[in-house]
Amino acid sequence: MAVTQDIVATYRGPGAVMRRLLAAGEREDRALAILMAGCALVFIAQMPRLSRVAHLTGQELNMLLGGALLGWLIIAPLLLYGLAALSHLLARIAGGRGSWFGARMALFWALLASAPVLLLHGLVAGFVGPGPALQGVGILWLVVFGWFWFSGLRQAERPAK
Predict the structure, then answer these.
(1) How far apart are CA 132 and CA 109, in angstroms?
(2) Phi, psi of 158 (to 5 degrees)
(3) pTM score
(4) Angle at alpha carbon of residue 33, lines to 30 and 37, rounded to 5°
(5) What are the φ/ψ torsions at residue 39 (nearest 5 degrees)?
(6) Cα 89 from Cα 120, distance rounded (Å)
């Protein structure tokens, strides 16, 4: 199934999509591609907010974008790999029987699948600015991301049959 169709299907049933992704086999190149696509979308979501900040404060937009690019495409993937490993260890303690790859896929897919809400958050941050609307969309993204990650991790940590 196409990635866009999988993203839409994740909003209806994240567990089923994660089962399908895990059934395709352990391919680290696919996990890395999903992670980098998610991080790239997070970077793109930051652009309207950074443009607003540059306009209001007189800072150089290119410097702000360069910092965000470095953070989201170089540093964040490394941190997300560590977070996925930590989530797998915690799931092991709680009785999970999945693989390291499954924990990575659950986190990386949650980031990519929740990116449409994060893009909306970026638009609200850029056009509306700080306030209840931005906080509401931020909370919505956090709930959606948590739901996708927890559902995916639950599927990834199930015992192998």
Answers:
(1) 28
(2) -70, 150
(3) 0.91
(4) 145
(5) -65, -35
(6) 33
Query: CA-CA distance, 161 to 149, in Å (whole number)?
Result: 22
Q: What is the pLDDT of residues 57-102, one digit of tens each?
A: 999 999 999 999 999 999 999 999 999 999 999 999 988 888 899 9
| Closest residue by Cα to residue 45 from 112, 130, 106 | 112
CB atoms within 10 A of CB 62: 10
Residue 45 pLDDT greater than 60, yes or no: yes
Q: Say how many CA atoms lie within 13 Å of 35 toward its Cβ.
A: 26
Give me 24's structure tokens: 């395709």
| Residue 36 to residue 71: CA distance in whole angstroms | 12
Pairwise CA distance, residues 10 & 83, whole Å: 21
State how far the Cα of 108 lies from the Cα of 18, in Å rounded to an integer: 11
**Cα–Cα distances in angstroms (integers) from residue 91 to residues 33, 94, 107, 108, 153, in the given order:** 24, 5, 13, 16, 8
Classify residue 53 as exposed, middle or buried by CB count within 10 Å of its CB (0-12, 13-18, 19+). Answer: middle
Query: Amino acid identity, residue 146?
Result: G
